[in-house]
Specification:
single chain, alpha/beta, Rossmann fold, 8-stranded mixed β-sheet
Length: about 325
Amino acid sequence: MRTVTATAAAVTAALATGAASVAVGRLASDAALKAPPGRPLPTEPRLTVHGTAAGQITLTRDLAALRPGRYGLAGDGSHAVVGPVLGTAEHGADTVVRRLERVTHGTLETGDRAWFTPNLYVGNPGTALDLEYADVEVPGELGPLPAWFLPGARPTWIIAVHGLAATREHALNVIAPLHRRNVPVLTLAYRGDVGAPPSPDGLHHFGETEWRDVDAAARRTPGALLPLAVRAAQGRAGLHADRDAGTAGLYRPAVPTLIFHGPGDAVAPWRLSRRLADTHPRLVALHTVRDAPHGAMWNADPADYEETLRRFMTPLV
């Protein structure tokens, strides 16, 4: 990789919730500072497995269990993929039956506790998606940052950056459709991630310091740059909703920005994404996703998400 001296063709699209500047409330602040990568946020309920059968799983009836779309189902030592609620299945008063697409590893036993995760895949692009990739390192201010690089013929690169309580595996949801468009993809681990240097104070700062690692990657990718942020939110944890009555605290975009976000996000306030889009209508497009929790905008409707992203990217790459 070589240093890029100009990134005038840069475009920003937030792939997960995409609030370009997040006012962090008490819950979000605590989660941002303390949530370990790969573990559920405090907002994500634990569900009990009531049983499995051919192609289906029965879970505790909860708003989370009724969400539309596809999700990972993670437990201690297990991971599976569940699809939509099965309308033709027999549901109990306290249970919900969903499609069970596969068990990635471990087992699902009656009585197990598990939670929904946006991650459909575990592993790396090779083991999870059978895609050619290389393990590379990006020099960061705290030390080398591990990354996956997937080659592509186009001159514009995508930097995929995961968000709050997630890992690089979060980006695997969108790597395959991006790869089909022949766009090179760099998926970065940043400070605090497994294999990356720790944050100096051991805390996650919701982008206030982590952006420096993404910037280090952007400066070392060849060609024009398209940073696509697969993350819970972009911004600074120092912003507070009760102090941002106007637009003074909002991020001011300089490039086209696509935000996937919705009112079901209990961590990053959706109203700030709406305000950002209303304030900068020529540069910011807000694609509202309903019935999706934090970081799971793709999961709610993968086909709609990918088509929206395709239309946004087509004139830019």
